[in-house]
Amino acid sequence: MISRTENFKNFYYLPSEYKPEGQKFCYSIKNEKIAHIYPFDFVEFTSKKRINSKELSGGQIKKSIKGLYNIQKSIKNVDFNNTQISLNDGKIKVSGNRRFEKDLNNFFSPLNCFEKTIGRKQNGIHCFTLDKHILKVTQNLVNDPDFQSLSKNDKKISTFCALFHDIEKKEGKKDNSHPLNSANSALIAAKKLNFSEDEQTKIYDIIKNHHYLEIINKAKYSDEIGNNEGMGHNAEEKIKTVARGVKNLETFKMTKMLCKADLKSVLSDESFYNSLKSVYDACSDAVVKEILRLKP
To answer: N or C: more exposed end of the chain, with fewer CB within 10 A?
Structure first.
């Protein structure tokens, strides 16, 4: 039998400094694989107050969920190139859009976590600060035609994931650990908002794997994946890891949509996504094939 710690390291890509001690494991003996991780006991997260540590009231939960649904509508036409985001007396301020400002505060205020992203600089070619990038990703997600084909509940989950996907991203430098850290914070927030266990699982899997394009395939692998032959060992193993991480086509569909929205939100236009579209399609198709192969 493979040890849980060894299996954990093989099953997920984790930063080298990450230590899995103290986690709650949902372990599948039949497949000798970790089915999922529920990191509800992360002392490092709660101690740093990344998410409001207080228990939320029923009224706060209801208000936050209503705000989440309303964001799907009020964010659609916001011009983030000409919109100022700021913080005033603990409230998020959005210039020229009181409706969106209200929805954003209703959703985030009980969780106390979006404020730290405001004005935070990103690395490399990103043209938006982290707060605007997160919101731009959410906008691109809800405006995606595929978003309309989701169920009401999956729309809620997808919007939640977009708003949390980079919530723990470090400032001004490449941060390979942010998908995992953001997934952990999102999981804690989802638990506080009384999301079901199945919803929490989807949220964790989607956010943790939303960088699958970078994980699987830098440009040098694109031809191999596109031709589906001669695929390098590393690329093949990464595809398997992502496929096992997202578990099913339903979750991967939402992960794929988040990845696409993320790529479209790097620059003020969609040129970054357009330059990677063929690689995105090839990598996504490869993951789908692997999920279908693993399907019992």
So the answer is: C
